[in-house]
Amino acid sequence: xxxxxxxxxxxxxxxxxxxAFCPPHFIEFFKKQVAEAIHKHRMFxxxxxxxxxxxGGKDSLALWDVLIEDGYQTTGxxxxxxxxxxxxxxxxxxxxxxxxxxxxxxxxxxxxxxxAPIPEVQKATRRPTCSACGLSKRYLMNRAALEHGYPxxxxxxxxxxxxxxxxxxxxxxxxxxxxxxxxxxxxxxxKLVRRVKPLYRLSELETAAYxxxxxxxxxxxxxxxxxxxxxxxxKELLNRLEETSPGAKHNFLFGFLEKAxxxxxxxxxxxxxxxxxxxxxxxxxxxxxxxxxxxVKRQAR
Length: 301
Ligand code: Q46
Ligand code: ZN
Ligand code: ZN
Fold this sequence. Notes:
Elements: E1 12-14, E2 19-21, H1 23-40, E3 49-54, H2 58-69, E4 73-80, H3 84-101, E5 105-109, H4 110-114, H5 118-125, H6 129-148, E6 152-154, H7 159-171, E7 184-185, E8 194-196, H8 204-213, H9 230-244, H10 248-264, E9 273-274, E10 281-282, H11 288-300
Parallel strand pairs: 3-4, 3-6, 4-5, 6-8
Antiparallel strand pairs: 1-2, 7-8, 9-10
This protein binds Fe4 H S5 and zinc ion (2 copies).
Residues 275, 277-278, 280, 286-287, 289-290 line the site of one zinc ion (ZN).
């Protein structure tokens, strides 16, 4: 196997691109894919400061690293979910990374906002852990960016994540989720910041290779609640498909984005109101996050 660029020994074969790269040229390829994502979807400019949501895992830290390397202005956001040792260790990985790059890291404790750490939220609300966690993360990311005046939040979702989410939405024909599946969600309200996913063109294997080659120290263990999640089953299924036909994941996701997504956009835009309790956007009177936090607090009384 030879590097497509220099003919030297290749370290990584990318079957869906029918190419192989040596370490320096793989890093170059990786950076180009990120640059293309940012450019194509006008994710942010060099004048803006990007708030990078980091979990301590390979994807979000690789994303932060590549943005710093490319000269973007960034700041980190770590949401402490209060998930036992997993949260303790992942927070420390983020702090060490931020300090080594001279970057600012904002830390927010989910328990302070919701009233209990994530493992206890399920008991108080009987809502599946990951659903309460996902809702809280989206809400707190937006709130933190607004509070500190950052116009955009970037997350480390990669091609595998995006293809698996799309697969899940299609399996259940969640037609309201489909138009929201995008590498870049614009701000449609003054209280809503832009949300972008600059790694959507790169596979999980590629972000792992980048993190390894760049010497990033990340948390290898998954969140204990990830086990048995349907999204993991969908990922496995897509991986099996990818093995027999390289490029399957890419075609599935990119085909949707290019040819099908627009068909699901609702003609009638929903009207966003300010939540009567917290002032953030909602389609009802009280936002889903405030309802969740209220349930947790009532249970604790
Ligand atoms: S952190 Fe939260 Fe994930 Fe853990 S509880 Fe589920 S959603 S699995 S990305
Ligand atoms: Zn090379
Ligand atoms: Zn609210």
